[in-house]
Write a structure and sequence with these properties.
globular, 76 residues, mainly alpha, 434 Repressor (Amino-terminal Domain)
């Protein structure tokens, strides 16, 4: 089974014991919008993926499901 972005962001949120509202507030978006990302009813824009990757300290390949290897967000 292929890992999707929506399943990955939901898993990261769950592993960190956070509510959807917690994450939405942290990345400065409306909670309803974040919920739509997790359900897959709206595609996650690149700028939001970057915010989420930075928030969870994971690289974009991991958060998008391209890779199962969890690497840190690149800090330049």
């Amino acid at each position: 089974m292929r890992v999707t972005c929506k399943s990955r962001i939901k898993k990261l949120r769950s592993q960190n014991h956070l509510s959807q509202k917690d994450v939405a507030v942290a990345i400065k978006i409306p909670p309803r919008t974040y919920c739509d990302y997790e359900t897959g009813s709206v595609k996650v824009p690149l700028d939001i993926l970057i915010r989420l990757a930075r928030y969870y300290d994971v690289d974009l390949n991991y958060i998008t499901g391209i890779s199962n290897l969890r690497k840190e967000f690149p800090h330049l």
